[in-house]
Amino acid sequence: MAVIKATADGVKLLARLMRAEAEGEGQLGMLMVGNVGVNRVRCNCLDFRGIRTIQQMVFQSPGGFEAVRKPYFYQRAREKEIQLAQKVIKGNRYHPASFSLWFFRPTGGCPTQWYNQPHTGRYKSHCFFAPTSANCPNVYNTF
What we know:
alpha+beta, single chain
C-alpha cells in the first residue's frame, strides 16, 4: 500500500529525480533520495508545509532540488528507476535516509546539523538530515 498518492506521471517524475540526484550512488543511493522526496510529501512541516504531491515536492521553490535545473533531469525515466520509485512510494525506507528531509553532497565531512536538524548518517557522497519527532511527527508515522 502506498504511503503517498502517486499518479503514473508522478512515479516517473520521482524516478527522474532519483536518477538525476544519485545515479552515481547506485540503487541504494537513489532509494535514499526517494525516501527524502516521499518524506517531504508526507511531513507537512517545516519548509515542506503544504507539499501534497510529488510534482509540488520536486519543483518546490525555494527549497527544491538542484537537479531540476540541470538538463540531465529531463531525460525519460527508465524502468529500473521507476521500480525504485515505486518501492519508496510503498513505504520502504533505507537508512540513513529513512526519516530524512534533507541531503547534500559536501566537499568534506558531514556537519552535525543542517538547518538545525541532526545528521543521521552518510551514504557515499551524500549526508542525510532528519527532523526531530517533536518538530515533524508525520515523518515518523507509519500510515
